[in-house]
Amino acid sequence: VQLQASGGGLVQAGGSLRLSCAASGRFISTRAMGWYRQAPGKQRELVAVMGSGDSTDYVDSVKGRFTISRDNAKSTVLLQMNSLKPEDTAVYYCYANLNARGYWGNYWGQGTLVTVSS
What pLDDT shows up at residue 94? Predict the structure, then answer.
């Protein structure tokens, strides 16, 4: 099972980016899918998560600016990021809790860098 993230880049403050993460390989089903981020010198933090029932949760600092969505048919999770701020600069990692070979586990993408300039 692999998670492939894309969509990072350099953007000015106030701009937008959309991150995408697709799961591939042999797995039965997914539960939660979401995004973490890690800024230089800081711990990794949960940014947004969406459960299999489409419930969502966001870290307070991105509420109202970021939107997470899923395309279950494509096993893809998206993160639309609007009104970006310099403090959103980080490496963003997608993850999925999925069932592969009969076992549930967390799988991670390789990370995509988001840089927001002031």
Answer: 96
Contact between 71 and 78 under an 8 Å Cβ cutoff? The reply is yes
Residues 6+ apart with CB under 8 A from 116: 11, 12, 13, 15, 84, 85, 86, 87, 88, 89
Binned average pLDDT, 10 residues per bin, the chain of 118 residues = 95 98 90 95 96 91 97 90 98 95 92 96
CB 25 within 8 A of CB 100: yes
With beta carbons less than 8 A apart as the criterion, state whether 23 and 30 touch. Answer: yes
pLDDT of residue 53: 82
Strand arrangement, sheet containing 76-81: 2-6, 17-24, 76-81, 66-71
CA distance 62 to 87: 10
